[in-house]
Amino acid sequence: MAAIPELKRKTCTYSFHREPLTSLIERSNLVTGSNQKVFVDQYGDLLTLLKMVVDPVPLQTLLQFYDPELRCFTFQDYQLAPTLEEYSILMNVPIKYQVPFLDVPKEVDFRVIARALYLSIKEVSDNWKSSGDVVGLPLKYLVRMAKEEAKKGNWEAFNAQLAIMIYGVVLFPSMPNFVDLAAITVFIEGNPVPTLLADTYYAIHSRHGKGGAIKCCLPLLLRWFLSLLPTSGPFMDTQSTRKWTQRIMSLTSYDIRPLDAEIAESVHFEKRSDPARLEPVGRAWKNIGVKDGAVLGKKFAIAMPDYIDWVKKRVEILLLPYDKMEPLQEQPPLILAESVPAEHYMQALMENRRLKEKEQDTQMELYKGKANKLNLAHQLKGMQGEDASRLKSKKRSYEELETLLNEEHREYLRLQKAEANYQKKI
Questions:
Q1: How many Cα atoms occupy the beta-carbon half-sphere of 181 within 13 Å?
Q2: Does the keyword Transmembrane helix apply (predicted)?
Q3: Is residue 334 scored above 70 in pLDDT?
Q4: Residue 167 DSSP label
Q5: Which of 265, 244, 263 is nearest to 76 (CA)?
Q6: Domain coordinates in residue numbering, the chain
Q7: For labelling alongside 39, which of 231, 284, 293, 304 has CA 20 to 30 A away?
Q8: Per-position DSSP letters for 25-90, written without gaps between them
Q9: What share of the chain is helix, strand, coil (3-state, %, to 5)?
């Protein structure tokens, strides 16, 4: 009797559109020396995103694993989902405690825009144009103004104009060679991370299964994905997948099976398709309630068996397009050599498990330390006197914590190598 072929999901083809960035990169090369530090302190790591080459291969592969019901990427026995904290650290931009999403103003205030971009109100109003169904400033006009500011040595104005061009063309692209009002609004508020993350999910979800062009902040999405992969070796093959799965497991928030109510369909619709529903959603974002002192408990980074079983069923439903492997959470069979006592072998296995758990805790502490350090660094800019001195002391303590965690990580790697040699002897 002929074997029934295993069903697999059809691979969908996506394209990744980016505008020509030569003029912006040429301007960014003028940001050097002390001005480069000033630019990064004020606007984050925009220059890295601007100059990053977007390789479509890893993005094309990642999108095949998108799980539309769970709004994440489902792999064989774990899930991945970009978070606000990860985007904040990758961009080196803190998340402000304010309403995260903003309405594009119906009436344009040229005074606010002129002040933010170091332009005159007349210059902004004279060059304000429409492109398609959006309004804003042409890129060539902003490039010309930034060039003039650089010649004059007005680096504060130049930095602002370069940053808004990166916002409009790289972070929040809409029309070709155009910086629209939505990008300008986010730039003025100075809290881009929530909108970037929302755009990422929206772009992927809206194109899932349909293919076509994705125009969200591709450099940031790629940078997030590559941060979870090994720095060398073949991409997405069996060996590299085995190497980085344990690390990913410690970063994902799905280490236990979620309740059905927690993954129910969320609000997702085009702005023009249902404006009546959009209005109450917008009002809700302006009345966010925060539970003070809520303790969720220590993160347990080892996946639970019911979670693994649940993910396996999700994989079967999604018909993921890759060959199945043995679950990575299962322990290898106990094989003893005559020269090694069984109790020593079991002790080595338990020590290895303890070290893995310690490594996961270390990674989480290092992650929290970096986030706190980033927030403190931005607080320092606006503080003076005694308060600034106190915050500097806190920053030093976080740097000491980061050094300690790095030392623990090196010790873990040393013990891991020793344990591997021990197993070879077995």
A1: 21
A2: no
A3: no
A4: I
A5: 244
A6: 14-285, 333-425
A7: 231
A8: HHHHTT--HHHHHHHHHHH-SHHHHHH----HHHHHHHHTTEETTTTEEE-SS-EE---HHHHHHH
A9: 55, 5, 35
Which residues, 6+ apart, have CB-to-CB distance to 365 below 8 Å?
401, 405
Adjacent-strand bridge partners of 126: none
Q: Write down how long the chain is.
A: 426
Question: Distance (Å, rounded) from C-alpha 162 to C-alpha 142?
Answer: 8
**Which residues are within 8 A (CB) of 227 and not within 5 positions of it... i.e. 6 or more apart?**
86, 90
255 contact partners, CB below 8 Å, separation of at least 6: 249, 299, 300, 301, 302, 303, 304, 307
Question: For residues 325 and 78, what is the distance between their CA atoms, to the nearest angstrom?
Answer: 13
Q: Write out pLDDT tens, residues 101-120.
A: 777 888 899 999 999 999 99
* CA atoms within a 13 Å half-sphere pointing along the CA-CB vector of 84: 11
Beta-bridge partner residues of 203:
none
Nearest CA to 378 among 88, 82, 49? 88
* Nearest in space to 245 (alpha carbons), one of 203, 308, 201, 293: 308
HSE (CB half, 13 Å, CA atoms) of 335?
7
- The answer on pLDDT for 247 being more than 50 is no
Which helix (H) or strand (E) covers residue 130, if one does?
strand 129-131
Q: Quote the pLDDT of residue 25.
A: 92
User: Rounded to an integer, what distance in angstroms lies between the CA atom of residue 167 and that of residue 385?
Assistant: 34
pLDDT greater than 70 at residue 65: yes
What is the rounded CA–CA span in Å between residue 423 and residue 91? Answer: 41
